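Hi there, hope your week has been kind to you so far. Do you reckon you could talk me through the fold, stretch by stretch? I've dropped the whole record in just underneath, so have a look:
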Amino acid sequence: SGGYASNCIFTSNTADNRGGAIYKGSADSCIFRENVANEGGAIYDVYATKSTFIDNLAHKQGGAMQGSSAGQCTFIGNSAEGFSGAAFNAYVVDCTFINNTAAHAGAVGGGSNSASNCLFLGNSALDDGGAVYGYTVLDSTFIENHAAQGGAMHTGSVNNCIFEENYAYNVGGALMETYAVNCNFTNNTANKGGAMYQNSAKNCIFTSNTASEGGAMFNSHSDNCKFYYNTATKDGGAIYEGGADSSLFRYNSAVNGGAVALSDALACTFYDNIAEEYGGAAYRSSATRSLFQG
């Protein structure tokens, strides 16, 4: 049980433990600004709809909220000193997350929850998961999120999502340890794995991603994916230390292995890939039933 708030404004409220503004209940069409708590800076275990959360803070987790769910809400500039700058362990749908920050999971994370039809823009994490950590994400868009690893997301799965211009200072410009299906990756960057690090992708398109090794993928596997114009400043224009089945590689480039390096290719097609030194298409890799054409 709990209270119900509608068309209310909550500003600069504080709780030593949970829910700086509201603890348990529901909120509709409310504004929460600059509230503070240890967990759930603005709300804790509250079902929120059509509400806006701005500059709320959690000392531990859930900068704006913890628990329950949010629908058609907007989260801007919320932060957590630990986990999940906007929402911790909450189901979110039709929400927008802008410029939220945390040590881990800049926007949402924690638990086995999901996010669907959401926009993640400019969120950041000091460590991992610039926008998301440990969720299942559907039909969402990630733009300009960043972290040390997993610029957009760390751990979980994504389906039918778009990743553009996310970056990681270390590995996985868009994704780390996250399984991707039917997604598009464009202009993501990292030191290793411009778009993806340590997992696999199916029916995805990778375009113009960049890294020192593995312009699109590092230590990852592709199944029926397409790679265009990905670049590595060292080895593996598209893939480094991974594998590919039934995938297309075109116009990728690197110093060694214009398309793939230290990787295995099965039933793949390679067109017009370029290497500055060795292996225009493949470098120190194996290929079976594949087509190479320059």
